[in-house]
Amino acid sequence: MSDSTPLPWHKDLWEQLQQRLQQGRLPHAMLFHGPVGVGKYAFARALTQALICKSPEADGRACGDCPACHLYTAGNHPDLLLVTPGEGSRVIKVDQIRDLIDRLALSRHGRGYRCVIINPADRMNTAAANSLLKTLEEAPQSTLVMLLSSQPASLPATIRSRCQRLRFDLPQQAQGVDWLLAQGVSDASERLQFANGAPLLAIEERDLPLAELQTQLSQDIASLGQGRLAPGTLAQSILKGGEARSISWIYLWVSEAVKSRMTGTTPERKEAESLQGLTQQVDLQQLFGFLDRLQQVKGLLMTSVNKQLLVEGLLYDFTAMLRTRQ
Ligand SMILES: [Zn+2]
Question: Model-level pTM?
């Protein structure tokens, strides 16, 4: 995957932005939002290189061969300012934004654009977000600030209102599979399904034994329900195996179990069938409440909460719900 080429399912977005650029109407602050693994970051990088490149192609893509492109691909072009949570941290701190503002006050390296990528933007803490407001309102000339987020709703309204929003959609299933095959992923269809349709997530997880992980988690939940596994122990193993993915799976299975119960059908996924068996006598309202809780936990996992306590609490709630079975 070349850094300078937009992903096939973002061709329209690309053309739209190129058009605006040619008309001199490129906004100076944009919010790229869409699911994890859809390719927001790849797009932001391709756009950055295109704006930095000295002799872009006809469709706006970077040439990949000029001095600016070489500097960019070597990973040290001074006109790309990347802000991400510091190592070992889950948040973007105010000092990082202050540092960014200081760097923006310096003169540009080239004569072209200067690009800022804040990823994920929803990880900025309140102080960091507040200190960015002025920059979003009046960015220095020829500066493009790109905020990337899969949870735009968790961004302060003051930030959202100062950015033009650009929505990134998942590709059609066939397009996603074709792309994964071209990247050398042989079980592309299965991988894409595991990644909820997000091709870049599928690439990231290509070496994980996801089927085995799912089976294990499903069995562990059954053991939890039968009182043979303590919530604390299961929480620990969920955290070890990647909590965001595990919670998403549980959410998926419970949703499917609920849906099947309402329609009187058998769930397609065997994990959902197992959950349906466990929760058969649980009141539907309670199950809906648990789905809300799962959704809430998914969001909280992105923050700096104590994850062990959070996941353990969720599993306690699950066992408490099972105890209400009639
Ligand atoms: Zn170039």
Answer: 0.78
